[in-house]
Structure formats: structure tokens, C-alpha cells
Amino acid sequence: MTIGIPKEIKNNESRVGMTPAGVFELTKRNHTVYVQKEAGEGSGFSNLDYENVGAIILDSIQQVYQSSDMIVKVKEPIAEEYDLIQPRQIVFTYFHFASSERLTLAMLKSKAICIAYETVEDEDGTLPLLTPMSEVAGRMAIQQGAKYLEKPIKGRGVLLGGVPGVPPGKVLVLGAGVVGIQAAKMAAGLGAHVTILDVNMKRLRYVNDVMPSHVVTEFSNEFNVRKHIQTHDLIVGGVLIKGAKAPKLITKDMLKNMRPGTVLVDVAVDQGGCMETTKVTTHENPTFIVDDIVHYGVANMPGAVPYTSTLALTNVTLPYVIKLADKGWKQACQDDKTLARGLNIVEGEVVYKEISEAFGWENTSVN
Ligand SMILES: NC(=O)C1=CN([C@@H]2O[C@H](COP(=O)(O)OP(=O)(O)OC[C@H]3O[C@@H](n4cnc5c(N)ncnc54)[C@H](O)[C@@H]3O)[C@@H](O)[C@H]2O)C=CC1
Ligand SMILES: CC(=O)C(=O)O
Ligand SMILES: [Mg+2]
């Protein structure tokens, strides 16, 4: 198979879809790998690093898309990339379709096979290709939140860890999944008081077992959310309903009950956000203010730490890339149900029901 690795063009996205180690595994199996010039630079990989393991470097993104049966990348295609995608081309990347009707329509029109990292799902319901990036984003949420709590950038002016004689800051984490647990762990490590909410009692029991006593679990319901937003300095949104739009746990009317300078880091922004006033932002311009509340809505948080994130992502994607390359998508998905759950759009048809539901569509195909 021919496999193409384009350079990411989303704002401040420095990850790349494959490392030289991944290319090595594919060329060893007689696949051809095209890498766009400088695609790996932001993650510390030169053109020569790729050439040394048998990749062919192409000058332009157009050449990569035109030459490849399968595109392996990181982020969802952005508007400039829509027309590059070819009918029956496999595109293996994050898509987050439920948050963008425009992207969904463009991919339907392309007649490509869109396999979304974020819905590849193991038998036990875990998401092996989302997990490492959620680990990164959960940890980063506290780093970012701590920074935006500083007064010069309109935060409340609270030091999360406090100091001797002064109580620590308070962090509220919505969702005790991968993002939530990593955020709670980082916040607890800084000495902050942490409250973590989920609707899944198994997750809360687990958190209660493994976290120190200044991480307190509570069931997630509107009453508890309304109560805690009044007293917490930093609120991290990490809820997910697989493949679907995130539920809005913090509505606009609730902002007036928060103290000015409270910081909201809505990590779930890529699935539409779990806070009503969330908007997608970029690393260049990560925050905005609504009713004196600081909002952070970067949808590619791990893109800012590519040296860590590219390795963490490609560690988990490579085994599936190899299966797709060796067998083609149909056979690979027949043989591996985990991978098959990643199929979102196939040649003009939505094959993942939460996506059609997100837009209220009954008909799932275009002609
Ligand atoms: N902005 C970014 O750069 C990144 C965003 N993400 C996003 O972060 C989100 C969370 O991802 P993960 O932690 O991996 O998901 P996960 O599936 O591990 O955890 C989600 C948790 O939300 C809980 N939940 C569902 N409804 C809830 C409710 N009403 N109240 C409280 N909890 C509720 C679930 O029970 C689950 O424990 C996803 O949308 C993911 O795409 C992940 C990585 C990077
Ligand atoms: C998961 C995701 O959207 C990201 O890593 O950017
Ligand atoms: Mg994202």
C-alpha cells in the first residue's frame, strides 16, 4: 500500500502522524511511505531521519494526497485540505465529527473512508487511540489553568498550591475519565484542593481508591455542579459521551454565580465542549472572557508539546496502521472489532450513529 504523511497545518499543530520508527515498520513490510517535506520537524524528526528508513520525501501536500492509498495524520482535515482527499482514500486521524457538520459534509462528499482515532474502541469501552492524548491534555489543563489564574491575564490571582498559612486554590474537574484523572492528579500534586464529579460510580470508586484525601469525589448532577462552581477557582471539563456532542454541564446563566476571574478549561471542546459558552480557540489566542470568566478552548492542546505527544500517539496508532496497510480497510476491520468501531464515514455514508444523531439526520448517506 502507499501511505502518505502530510504536514499538519492547523494552528500551532506540531505533531506528525508517524515517526521514523513507524515508517521503518512499514517499509520493512514493503509498503511505500510518502512524507511531506518537513512534516516531522516540529516533533524533532528531519527529512533525513525519514529517508534513512526508506520514506520518500515529497515537496507538497498535494503530492502526498495524490500519491497515497492511505493518509495517516493527527488532526481533522481543515477546509484547505477538504478537496485534497480522494474517493476511496483511507484517512486515519482524529475527526471529532459530531462537533462539525461542515467537516462531516465535506468528508461525505469526498467519498473517502474516514477512520476516527477517537472512536476506535476496545471491548471494555476504553478508547486506546484517544487515551494518550487525553493523558497529555488532562495534565496540560492544570498547567494552562494555573497560568490563566494569574491576575495580569485576568484570572482570580490565586496560586493553586497556596503557601504556608494560606489555603490552596480549588480545582473542580468534570468527568473522571482519562482527562479528569490526569488533571486531578496534577492539581493534587501542586497541593490544590480537588473536587471531581462523574456519573459513573466505578470511576468515582477508582479515583477514591487511588487519589490522596484532598481529592474528593462527588456524583455529577446539576445541583452539585451549581454548588461547586461558586467556590472553585479552576474548572476543567473532561466529560465525553463517545462519538457524540458533549453534554452542557455549565450553562451561560451559571457564569454569574462564579467569582470573577474563575478559569474554565474546556478540554471537551473538540466534541463541542461541556460548557455552553465554550468556543474553539487556538494556541496563538487561547482564551476569551465572558461575564468576567476566563475561558480556554484549545482543541489541539497536545499539539503544543509535540515532542511528548507525537511519540505517545504513534505508539498506539502504529499497530492499526500496519493492519490497515497489510490487509486493506475492509479485511482489517473485519478481523479487528476494535478498529472497526473507528469507521465513521465510508464512501459517502455515515456509519457511526452518534454522528447522524448529533445533526438530527435520518438519512446517513449522500449521493
Ligand atoms: N482539547 C484537546 O486538545 C483534547 C481533548 N480531548 C477530549 O477530552 C474529552 C474527554 O476525553 P477522555 O477523558 O479520554 O474521555 P473518557 O471517556 O475517558 O472520560 C469521560 C468521562 O466523562 C464522564 N461523563 C459522562 N457524562 C458525564 C456527566 N454528565 N457528568 C460528569 N461526567 C460525565 C464519563 O463517565 C467518563 O468517565 C473528549 O472529548 C476528548 O476528545 C482529549 C484530548 C485532547
Ligand atoms: C484528541 C485530540 O483532539 C487531540 O489530540 O488534538
Ligand atoms: Mg482535539
UniProtKB/TrEMBL annotation:
Reactions catalysed: L-alanine + NAD(+) + H2O = pyruvate + NH4(+) + NADH + H(+)
Cross-referenced PROSITE patterns: ALADH_PNT_2 (PS00837)
Broad enzyme group: oxidoreductase
Keywords, ordered alphabetically: NAD, Nucleotide-binding, Oxidoreductase
Active-site feature positions: 96 (proton donor/acceptor), 270 (proton donor/acceptor)
Residues the entry annotates as binding NAD(+): 134, 198, 203, 220, 239-240, 267-270, 298-301
Ligand binding (substrate): 15, 75
Molecular function per GO: alanine dehydrogenase activity; nucleotide binding
Domain Alanine dehydrogenase/pyridine nucleotide transhydrogenase N-terminal: 4-137
All residue ranges annotated as the Alanine dehydrogenase/pyridine nucleotide transhydrogenase NAD(H)-binding domain in the record: 149-297
Domain of life: Bacteria
Biological process terms in GO annotation: L-alanine catabolic process
Annotated Gene Ontology cellular component terms: plasma membrane
EC number: 1.4.1.1
UniProt keyword annotation of Translocase present: no
Pfam families, per database record: AlaDh_PNT_C, AlaDh_PNT_N
Family recorded in the similarity comment: Belongs to the AlaDH/PNT family.
The protein's name: Alanine dehydrogenase
Protein source organism: Mangrovimonas spongiae
Lineage: Bacteria, Pseudomonadati, Bacteroidota, Flavobacteriia, Flavobacteriales
